Amino acid sequence: MKCRERNETTAQGAGSSPEIRLGEPMRKVLKQTCMLLLLVICSAADENARRAYVRDISTIEGIRENSVLGYGIVVGLRGTGDKQQTIFTTQTLANVLQKMGVQIPAGTIKVNNVAAVFVTSTLPAFASPGTRLDVAISSAGDAKSLEGGMLLLTPLYGADGKVYASAQGAVVLGGYSAGGAGNTKVVNHPNVGRIPAGGMVERDSSVDLRSMPSISIMLSEPNFSTAQAVENAINELLGKHVAQAEDSRRIIIDRAAAKTEGLPALLAKLENLEVEVRRRARVVINERTGTVVLGKDVRLGAVSILHGNLSIEVSTQFAVSQPNPLSTGKTVVTPEQNIKAEEAPAHRIELSEGASVEQLVSGLQRIGATARDVIAILQAIRAAGALEADLEVI
Prior knowledge:
Helix content: 10-25%
Strand content: 35-45%
Strand order of the largest sheet: 5-6-7-13-9-8
Structural class: alpha+beta
């Protein structure tokens, strides 16, 4: 936007247009006014845009975590382990003892101090052998508590069936169970615990960066505008056209064309890039808990909302018909139904075009709408085509 420093006026009855020169203070005021107006226009155009780092909105394809799972037993419990009817616990203990050279029939083992558990953990990216892991322990039987237990050496398997880690150590709980004989107190979940640094990586599962001919940046949320912004930022940083947005989620970088000193150095530069992000307006509804989350950039069309409550109560009362003494009649129970219907007057809310979330919430609070009412109203607004956002029900 460019401001003209000369203002021409036409005098009535004059054939020429006299020139009016502005003083230096007035010219500075006009210039500042024009710049302020330009900033306001740009802010209004980009009100839904924000700046974010590439590392916060994307991941690198192939560089990921991996889940591992194992089955083992926890020993050393104080009579809170699995009961005798839990067959797989006794079988597991018998197998462990057999490996130690002790031959005991599984049916003769009392396992009150032993519990069968599942062990889970997550292998971080570039985890090398010897790396320590935190593991989670969950009871698989009917044990009351894992308090004071010790997990025996347990192999942890990946999705391909190979052993990638092992776990062993004392179980730490975030709760407890006390009492007995029908008078017990349970805090949190005593059947689930953790072993900090109780796992150790046994097999290397990291990705060889040197064998990657290209790099694929995967956006957390698919968006063509964000993908194009990331592509432009990478090409501008490297000074050449090496990045190409394949779709709304994937941006591929030609490593050979980039000609950098190393892939870790290139990724360090890319993850610190700051780009403009435009997210889709979204409304998330959880009907089970009555939770409604609305983004600030959600806009509503011109709509009028009428909301009222209709309550119908049907009650049944049973009356006993008693015959007279020494008569031949029988006692009969007769039901009497009462129907009561109440309808509250409808409340009205009017929203203009482009109304914000704050205006909608304020209007719903004025009429005393509950969270369930808000969910029904939002779904009706969406069906009417007046909700300019994605409605997601979880």
